[in-house]
Amino acid sequence: MKTNLANLMSIVAEEERKFASYGYELKNHAYNTSAQELNGTITVIEDYKADFEKEFEEYKNTQEKIKKMKATLYEKNNTFKLPDGRTIQEAIVDNTNLRKMKNLYKYLLEQKNTKNRITEVNNSYFECKNVNFDATKIKEEYDALEKKIQDTDFEISKLNSIEFDLDI
User: 116: part of which helix (H) or strand (E)?
Assistant: First the structure.
């Protein structure tokens, strides 16, 4: 089957939903229900044995399918390279860290000088807090991080569309 990384990630997500659903069904079908009268007569009310066995096989098969697809996904993420030489996986890690930096920069840019009046029994004064960094410089770095993240995301997106054969 021909696919690409973007499609493979969607397929994996769908298989993981099916896997969770089979697990839920297995829990629901783990018991058969019967009524036993005092004279020993047993009447089966709910018999899930066949359902359980079928779902158990599907559960195991789905897990194997997910394992193979994720192995391919991880392999491709560590094989496909961006123009700057980083693998997709390296670029994802870099972007995660850059986003953390960007969030801190955003927080810093939101900080303002403050002046609070403090009144004590015999004393009154202002407590002044002044930002001690150049907001313009932080804003420039913030914008540079944003551009770098977008450029990397674009390059990852291009690599995610490369088609390859998937044997599942």
Answer: strand 114-119
